[in-house]
Design goal:
The chain is an all-alpha fold and about 100 residues long. The chain contains four helices and no strands. Helix 1 (about 5-30) runs antiparallel to helix 3, helix 1 (about 5-30) packs parallel to helix 4 (about 70-95) and helix 3 (about 40-60) packs antiparallel against helix 4.
Length: about 100
């Protein structure tokens, strides 16, 4: 795979995760005040992940480094953390919501 193709592929995946993060934040905003309060830490974490994703996406758009190993490792580690927080928050939404909210 060409390096530019790889960077484009990673960028597309990160954009998809950023959209998922925004969707879950919007779903939390639709919950009642008490339920939102219980998930405040989750929301703050999601905003941190969104900011990190925006930074990585911008880096991929403006520069596709020839030595990608350090950035790839950081993205892979963040991806594991982000997926865990996403699933944890989605579970919390399901418990706090009076109706089912599809993920």
């Amino acid at each position: 795979m060409d390096l530019k193709d790889y960077c484009g592929s990673v960028e597309a995946e990160l954009i998809g995760w950023k959209a998922k993060m925004y969707d879950i934040v919007r779903k939390i905003d639709q919950l009642g005040t008490e339920a939102r309060g219980k998930m405040l830490a989750n929301v703050e974490d999601l905003h941190i992940y969104i900011s990190e994703l925006e930074q990585r996406i911008q880096e991929l758009r403006t520069e596709c480094p020839t030595e990608w190993s350090p950035q790839k490792k950081a993205i892979d580690e963040a991806h594991v953390d982000m997926r865990s927080k996403f699933e944890e928050t989605l579970t919390a939404i399901g418990k706090s919501s009076p109706v089912s909210i599809p993920g």
